[in-house]
Amino acid sequence: MAVVGVLALQGSFNEHIAALRRLGVKGVEIRKPEQLHTVTSLIIPGGESTTMAKLAEYHNLFPALREFVRMGKPVWGTCAGLIFLANKAIGQKTGGQDLVGGLDCTVHRNFFGSQIQSFETELSVPQLASQEGGPETFRGIFIRAPAIIEAGPEVQVLADYPVSSDRLLSFDSSIKDKMENTEEESKVIVAVRQGNILGTAFHPELTADTRWHSYFVKISMEIGEETLSSLVPAQVS
Ligand code: GLN
Fold first, then answer.
1. Which residue from 37, 176, 186, 226 puts its CA 20 to 30 A from 29's CA?
2. 144 CB near ligand 1 (under 6 Å)
3. Distance of CA 118 to the CA centre of its chain
4. 129: which residues sit within 8 A by CB, 6+ positions away?
5. Which domain holds residue 59?
6. Is 105 an active-site residue?
7. What CA–CA distance (Å, rounded) separates 228 from 53?
């Protein structure tokens, strides 16, 4: 059974552990580099990414986190965690902020605005329906949420979301041009998968719906099996 680590420096790590528990999966708090060896996959929660980066720096976690991602182990970043996993972050106060990286995306911090512009919305996520045979909508909770404005070819888009015309006015053309723009609307990406990396701009751990957590556990088990089978020598018949 997968043991899921949850980076527990700051933010909503308890809520992730509780969501995993509801699925019967053990989640363990990670605060030190050596603890990463004890888990098969990792969740980086939402919170405040500059604070989380300072704490990760203080605990010398960046090299071990980068190695974890580079080794192909499953990692899921929610909100601030998504910012952590992006190769590039732009937007408010990103100067000098250390990132783990690995996800071939440009993430815009606080894309949807500040705390008072936080919102909830129904997202269409076909991948969740095919996993569970249930509805494909998911109630996304966006709190000072980032958005992915640019994604590389290896990145699978799991959900996107239209940008309101008011919000659009606050961006200059260098950012607007990166969005997916049609005559009717502009869209940004809010959930992605790139191999072992899953990223969501919203907070599934703050809902009672555990489908994202079961999707991540499923990815973790699949990747775990692949790694195991690559270690077992092929049978000679
Ligand atoms: N915008 C926040 C940041 O930059 C993330 C918000 C969140 O995780 N809810 O860290």
1. 226
2. yes
3. 18
4. 135, 136
5. 3-231
6. no
7. 32
